[in-house]
Amino acid sequence: MTAVANGVATLMATAGQASGTASVTVVQTPAKLDVASGNEQEARLGTQLPEPLVVRVLEQTGGVIPGVVVTFGPADERSGSADPTEVTTGANGTASTSWTLGDARRQAMVATAGELTVRLEATATADPPIPDYAIAGELEASRFDPLDTETLEISAHIANLGDGRSTGPFTVGLTVDGVHTGVVQADPIEPDDTATVTITAGPFEAGERSIGVVIDPELEFEEWDEENNQGEASVVVRQQQVIALDDSVTLGGAAGSVQLFRVEVEEQLNQTLTVRLDGPGGDGDIFVDFNVHRPSSIVAERTRRRCYSWNLGTGEICQFYPVREGTYYILVHAFSAFGDATLRVTTAEPPAEPFDLEVVMVDQGTASQNAVITHVAQRYESMIGLGEFDGTLTLPADACAPGMPALTSQAIDDVSIYVMIGELDGVGNAVAMSGTCVLRTGDNGNWIGMPALGTIVLDEADIGQLESDGVLEAVVTREMARALGFGLDTWTRHGFLQNPSLPEEPDADTRMNAALVVAAFNAAGGQGYMGAKVPLESGAIPGISDVHWRESVFGDEIMTPYLTGDSHPLSRITLEALYEVGYELDVMMADPFTLPGAGGVMASRRLKRYPGIGLAAYRGPIPVELVKGVVKKE
């Protein structure tokens, strides 16, 4: 049986002499309220919209329902009025009303039928047009945990939601804990456009501070809405104490407390910087980083690259060699309450544990070829000042690269690089393949990211020609940098790789986003480079993309995908990339280098191209890590 209209019907059934009847009542139930017409109109504020608002009541199957009472009412006090406010749907299931606008720029009317509602919106205009500047989204700050000696850049995105603009510049004010502290002038913003206004402020007193931005604080011009002119954000301002080299302070703290210190170094020193925290009881930990990397969140610092020391008890040490020119930041965290501890910063001549780079020649080249490989390893070893924790590795054969032997409890101190001379792809094409294979972990699985083992495969079909052409040392220098951690595995662990082109984004603007690398890029002539920094080769080519500097920007720098030109400088940009991975190394030992055309057109002479490919083209990162054998606190 199919219902065709509201009302009562009698059903009859017969079978021979037998019959029966049943009474059925058909009542439509509203299931949907939708807009038939009249939505998104525009009219002068305070006037009636040119077309009525029409809504429709439907049942579950989509049929219209007459005789349903629909109520119309403004969504807020500034959205005008409806006339009439109650309407019964007609035979076609619709109800309509007229809407007289209120005084807001965007207004809404709500239609209700029982538990069903639908929202209709309209836009008011003014004569003359009126702006409506509003804070759009959250306030941004250069950082939300500044020191009490630092200024902040507070940025507000301001949208014009009105139909006009201010006649001239307008004022944007800044408040700190509700007190006005300054203003800046901003240019007029066109309707439906957005601009960012940045205010520099501070330093602030230590503690939690409420930072506010107010548009037109003196109400100098008319707006549609004065209630959307404010934005607020909280920052935690921390105190920081300066410690001189070879000086100390006595300190303590309640559980969970954080204290900040800094050490200013005016010139690079060929010495070891030691930061030590010692105390009779309790448990204080130290986190140390350099220059732009200032320790902040304890959770974040446990996975940072420079140094974190959180032994059981208050007996902590971090060391750095050589001592770089700049600022070393120290964060002391009370894992549990401690007191009468001494934080001491000292310098001494020798490093506590010098860096060792072991090269294992799985396949021997000629005496002169072996000498080149040894020379390059000695160069890197001389640059890197401090060693890392030692351990042992067990790996199956070919786990890292073709020709790699199996390892059984093999001792690692500090980095081992296995060099194979074998078959890759014949004469020409790729002349080498390299990369990291095993990364250290910190305690409880926190990543330090420092490589423990890397591999280099030199193509036996090309190595003789590379030596004859005088570029074997450059090839080995490039491949050894990748074996030491210049590339995908370590950059991914630290979050440095941005917008990768692999596997399927060949047009991505790929970059290596590490602060010290960006600073070195700018210093080498990249300050005016308009793309994302620091640019990496893209194109989604396995082994080439995402792991080399972009050749069109870097020219002949050694870590581009192809060796070209007359020289192949190992730049400070590349050494900073290794420093960001975690090596304590002397970046002053870099070769002189300036970006050709300041990041534009290459100026070097084109010679032969000697491509090398990343090890990831042969294998992905394998789940083996060198782990320090000591239990740490949670």
What's the total count of β strands? 39
Number of H/I helices: 8
Please state the CA-atom Rg, rounded to the nearest Å.
Answer: 35 Å
What is the mean pLDDT?
A: 87
- The share of residues in extended strands comes to 35-45%
Shape: extended
In the predicted model, the low-confidence regions spanning at least 5 consecutive residues are 599-609, 613-634
| SS-based class | mainly beta
| Percentage of residues in helical conformation | 10-25%
- Cα(first) to Cα(last) distance is 70 Å
What's the main sheet like? 7 strands, mixed
Helix-strand blueprint:
Blueprint: E1 7-15, E2 18-26, E3 32-37, E4 41-44, E5 53-58, E6 69-74, E7 81-83, E8 86-88, E9 94-100, E10 106-113, E11 116-125, E12 133-135, E13 140-141, E14 152-160, E15 170-176, E16 179-186, E17 194-201, E18 207-215, E19 230-237, E20 240-242, E21 247-253, E22 258-265, E23 272-278, E24 283-290, H1 298-301, E25 307-309, E26 315-320, E27 326-336, E28 338-348, E29 357-361, H2 367-383, E30 391-395, E31 407-412, E32 415-422, E33 432-441, E34 447-459, H3 463-468, H4 472-483, H5 488-494, E35 497-498, E36 511-512, H6 515-526, H7 551-554, E37 562-563, H8 572-581, E38 610-614, E39 625-627
Parallel strand pairs: 4-11, 20-22, 29-32, 32-34, 33-38, 33-39
Antiparallel strand pairs: 1-2, 3-5, 5-9, 6-8, 6-10, 7-9, 10-11, 12-14, 13-14, 14-17, 15-16, 15-18, 18-19, 21-28, 22-27, 23-26, 23-28, 24-25, 24-27, 30-31, 33-34, 35-36, 37-38
Helix pairs in contact: 2-4, 6-8
